[in-house]
Amino acid sequence: MKNVIVGQSGGPTAVINSSLLGVYKTARDRGADIVYGMVHGVKGLLDGDIVNLSESLKNDIDMDLLKRTPSSFLGSCRYKLPDIDGNEKTYDKIFAKLEELEIYAFFYIGGNDSMDTIMRLTDYAKRIKSPVKFIGVPKTIDNDLAITDHTPGFGSAAKYIAATTKEIIRDGLVYDYPVVSVIEVMGRNAGWLTAATALAKGEDCEGVDLIYLPEVVFDVDKFIADVGVMLKQNRSVVIAVSEGVKVADGRYVCELAEHVDYVDAFGHKQLAGTARYLAGRVAANYGVKTRAIELSSLQRCASHIQARVDVTEAYNVGGAAVKAAFEGLSGQVITLKRVSDDPYMCITEPADVHLIANVEKKVPVEWITEDGTGVKPELTHYIFPLIQAEIAPLWVEGLPRHIKLGFTKTK
Ligand code: F6P
Predict the structure, then answer these.
(1) What is the pLDDT of residue 411?
(2) Which of 120, 156, 159, 374 could form a disulfide with 14 if both were Cys (CB 3.0 to 4.6 A apart)?
(3) % of the chain beyond a pLDDT of 90
(4) What mean pLDDT do residues 232-253 have?
(5) What share of the chain is helix, strand, coil (3-state, %, to 5)?
(6) Which residue in the list 49, 113, 116, 142 is annotated as catalytic?
(7) What is the atom index within ligand 1 of the atom nearest the CA of 188?
């Protein structure tokens, strides 16, 4: 009996379900009997909230829809497993459940916090000599995972952000009076996604005027002065700012306006309000019309504009995870290695989870302009291949069709 179990964890992406499909199909092709899904990640496993994925994925249409469905099909969690020492009961409960379900391999689709779960379970399996294999499948729109060239989910979010930025730039030019638009982009402490706004610039688009990444300390007075210079040159000023920009004393810019109470299990503060705060400061200083545009969840759930490269790679890392486990590996994360830029090509490669869990990969400072208000061509060249090609939604009555959770709990 070779059963496997898969879960999704952390913030969703537009292609996270392609990775789920990659795990599901490859496991079935390689002879797995049952592919279980954890509902809401490892939290669901602990609570006994488990489903048999075959009940939902009955035919090719279901699988085609799954690829095109945003958010995490199985539901997600931001659940941090406790330190092993002193919490053995929690781990024993998980391993008892895995034994009861006769699990050969455990796959977790997530970012650097979720890889902490794979790392801890790997370490405990070693301690109790459990044969279960643990493999991480990378995903995050933030693109902040170590070792891998990039993360599945980033390309589609970058495509949405670049396309939307082009539209915002056009809209900003509509009137004959000044408008300052501030676009707030996700990505926490890494500026990869904010940098994607630079892709908007081209022969049909002027591009954004100022870009602020969290890798550079943010100075509100300098920002106001930068905007003033731009307002002298342009009628419309479009600014991209990361949700994670921080001032010199370590506070997030969004905290300058209001106190942030919400902190998740991994200690991450909820970041929102940066654009609103900065647009307010610009309006107060220059008396011009401003817009604060928070892309928020739109940028990570826009499955109607998935990048085909991203969909394919998301599927491939899921498949490679199963291959690795079935070849006997454990404690690994599947990474993408860029082997060629032209033509663009990535291969998959397993890497030790201990080198990836909880590590944040930031934008290298050499890829940011010296004045801290733009990005260099090296950065746009790196992102461009990842947003290429499209995959059309399955349109029904004028709207993209999605697949809904259609299973009953088995345990
Ligand atoms: O980790 C991905 C991400 O989308 C970040 O870019 C963002 O800061 C965070 O998740 C938002 O998390 P939540 O969905 O828990 O508010």
Answers:
(1) 46
(2) 156
(3) 93
(4) 97
(5) 40, 20, 40
(6) 142
(7) 8
Closest CA to 319 of 9, 67, 28, 80: 28
**Cα(1)–Cα(33) distance, rounded to whole angstroms?**
7
> Would the CB of 372 count as within 6 Å of ligand 1?
no
Q: What does the pLDDT read at residue 410?
A: 47
142 is catalytic: yes
Q: Is the CB of 140 under 6 A from ligand 1?
A: yes
Radius of gyration (Cα) for the chain, nearest Å?
22
| Residue ID of nearest Cα to ligand 1 atom 8 | 188
CA distances from 142 to 161, 320, 346 (A): 12, 22, 19
User: How far apart are the C-alpha atoms of 226 and 216, rounded to whole Å?
Assistant: 15
| Residues present in the chain in total | 411
> Which atom belonging to ligand 1 lies closest to the Cα atom of 141?
2
Say how far apart CA 314 and CA 12 lie, in whole Å: 13
Q: Which of 247, 253, 285, 276 is nearest to 181 (CA)?
A: 276
Which residues does residue 292 pair with via DSSP β-bridges, in sequence order? Answer: 182
Q: Please confirm whether the linkage preceding 152 is cis (ω < 30° from 0).
A: no
What end-to-end distance do the CA atoms of the chain give, in Å?
18
Segment 2-24 shows an average pLDDT of: 97
Position 383 pLDDT exceeds 80: yes
Note the pTM of the prediction, 2 decimals: 0.97
